[in-house]
């Protein structure tokens, strides 16, 4: 690729590059750039929202650059205030480490993790939690280091942050710990540069990370380093079409989810997200995506078909083509032909002394509703079926409970009655 073509490739899907001129200048040096992105392990497993950054990192790798996949285990203990209307709940080391392990096992689905010239995984606890030089070349973080770091930035600059301004105007507290978070993230860039011949060339993050990323530029200047280029990526809305994809909100699509589950969730996204998902999550050419957008706007293509193409693309990427074909066939069998899936979890039922199965307790136990009140609401609204017949009562005689239980449009269980309890 020419430099202009490389820049065009890297520009795809980005929200902002600060600055393109600096990025072009770095590319002109014809050396492997050091590209950093940090991921705080605040929840287990990677989802499609994470892959927006990971795919951009892979583009840099494919152009010959080195990616630093930084696991923010130390910063996760502090809690990123970005987009938060109140202070985060503090996490424990055990929680953070458990979540981080799942990231380590999944990142190889997107990044080239085998070539040390293109990939390095680093945990920022290596410099924030007293790790010595023998464990990776980073000096320990001491009180003297803290004094030096905090002397290089002002409280006034930190309080300019929009998140903090909104909270203070609303009478919400902002902790000293939260003020320290942007400094920690910026210090990560300083440390990466010190371990790579003074270079931490580019840092990627979501649009909600812009303040933190710019603090990194400022701190690099303060430490006499060349400032990093900042690239922000759009935040990916989840299946609800409103909130940023998040496991805690239940609107996520995990990259390790079974093919059928992934396919079904992708088919449930709002039509308005089809083009954005294609742009940020696939390698489909921009010209084809532009044509698809035109066809969707003119109603020349059924959004359901476009989502099926998207689902096949992504299930193939994170599983394989055979799994994608099977998931598509199963989906249309269930939703178009109104047939139960070929495979579903089996549940062996028992009844109480009255000879009945408590459906409310069954729905909660199977994870088909969050609470008993939620289960009762599903029953009242006709969201529960047995062999195609809507169930409204909270219990069912054991003798009548065999067959396929359906909750909503996507959840099925095969019910197998057992002996009555006495």
Question: Could you outline the blueprint of secondary structure elements for this entry?
Answer:
Elements: H1 3-11, E1 16-18, H2 20-27, E2 34-39, H3 48-62, E3 66-71, H4 73-78, H5 93-106, E4 119-123, H6 125-128, H7 143-150, H8 155-159, H9 162-169, H10 176-194, E5 202-206, H11 210-222, E6 229-233, H12 259-267, H13 274-281, H14 286-297, H15 303-318, H16 321-335, E7 346-351, E8 356-358, H17 359-365, H18 372-380, E9 384-386, E10 389-390, E11 395-397, E12 403-407, E13 411-420
Parallel strand pairs: 2-3, 2-5, 3-4, 5-6, 7-13
Antiparallel strand pairs: 1-6, 8-11, 9-10, 9-12, 12-13
Could you describe the 3D structure shown?
- The protein has helices at residues 3-11, 20-27, 48-62, 73-78, 93-106, 125-128, 143-150, 155-159, 162-169, 176-194, 210-222, 259-267, 274-281, 286-297, 303-318, 321-335, 359-365, 372-380, and strands at residues 16-18, 34-39, 66-71, 119-123, 202-206, 229-233, 346-351, 356-358, 384-386, 389-390, 395-397, 403-407, 411-420.
- 35% of the residues are buried.
- Helix 12 (259-267) packs antiparallel against helix 15 (303-318).
- Helix content is 44%, strand content 15%.
- It is globular.
- The chain is α/β, with parallel strands linked by helices.
- The longest helix has 19 residues, at 176-194.
- The protein folds into three domains: 3-233, HUPs (Rossmann fold), CATH 3.40.50; 259-335, Tyrosyl-Transfer RNA Synthetase (Orthogonal Bundle), CATH 1.10.240.10; 346-420, Structural Genomics Hypothetical 15.5 Kd Protein In mrcA-pckA Intergenic Region, Chain A, CATH 3.10.290.10.
- It is built from 18 helices and 13 strands.
- Residues 131-137 have low confidence and may be disordered.
- The strands form three sheets. It has a six-stranded mixed sheet with strand order 1-6-5-2-3-4, sandwiched between helices. A five-stranded mixed sheet has the order 7-13-12-9-10, with no helix packed on it. It has a two-stranded antiparallel sheet with strand order 8-11.
């Amino acid at each position: 690729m020419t430099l202009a073509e490389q820049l065009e490739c890297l520009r795809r899907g980005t929200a902002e590059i600060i600055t393109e001129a600096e990025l072009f200048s770095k590319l002109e040096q014809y050396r492997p750039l050091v590209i950093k992105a940090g991921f705080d392990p605040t929840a287990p497993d990677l989802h499609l929202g994470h892959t927006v950054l990971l795919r951009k990192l892979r583009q840099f790798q494919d152009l010959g650059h080195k990616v630093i996949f930084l696991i923010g285990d130390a910063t996760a203990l502090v809690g990123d205030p970005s987009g938060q209307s109140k202070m985060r709940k503090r996490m424990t080391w055990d929680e953070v480490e458990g979540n981080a392990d799942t990231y380590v096992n999944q990142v190889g689905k997107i990044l080239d993790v085998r070539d040390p010239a293109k990939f390095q995984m680093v945990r920022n606890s290596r410099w924030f939690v007293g790790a010595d030089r023998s464990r990776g070349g980073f000096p320990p973080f001491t009180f003297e280091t803290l004094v030096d770091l905090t002397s290089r930035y002002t409280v006034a600059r930190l309080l300019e942050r929009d998140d903090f301004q909104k909270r203070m105007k609303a009478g919400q507290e902002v902790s000293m710990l939260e003020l320290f978070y942007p400094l920690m993230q910026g210090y990560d860039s300083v440390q990466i540069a010190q371990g790579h011949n003074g270079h931490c060339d580019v840092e990627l993050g979501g649009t909600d990370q812009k303040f933190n990323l710019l603090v990194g530029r400022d701190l690099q200047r303060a430490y006499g380093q060349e400032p990093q280029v900042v690239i922000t990526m759009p935040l990916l809305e989840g299946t609800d079409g409103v909130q940023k994809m998040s496991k805690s909100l239940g609107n996520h699509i995990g990259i390790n989810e079974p093919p059928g589950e992934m396919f079904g969730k992708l088919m449930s996204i709002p039509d308005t997200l089809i083009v954005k998902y294609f742009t940020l999550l696939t390698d489909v050419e921009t010209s084809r995506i532009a044509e698809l957008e035109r066809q969707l706007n003119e109603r020349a293509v059924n959004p359901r078909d476009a989502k099926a193409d998207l689902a096949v693309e992504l299930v193939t990427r994170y599983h394989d083509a055979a799994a994608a074909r099977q998931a598509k066939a199963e989906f249309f069998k269930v939703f178009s032909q109104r047939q139960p899936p070929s495979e579903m979890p089996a549940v062996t039922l028992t009844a109480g002394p009255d000879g009945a199965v408590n459906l409310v307790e069954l729905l909660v136990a199977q994870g088909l509703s969050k609470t008993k009140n939620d289960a009762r609401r599903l029953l009242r609204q006709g969201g529960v079926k047995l062999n195609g017949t809507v169930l409204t009562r909270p219990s069912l005689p054991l003798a009548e409970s065999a067959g396929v239980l359906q909750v909503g449009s996507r959840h099925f269980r095969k019910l197998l009655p057992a002996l009555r309890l006495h």
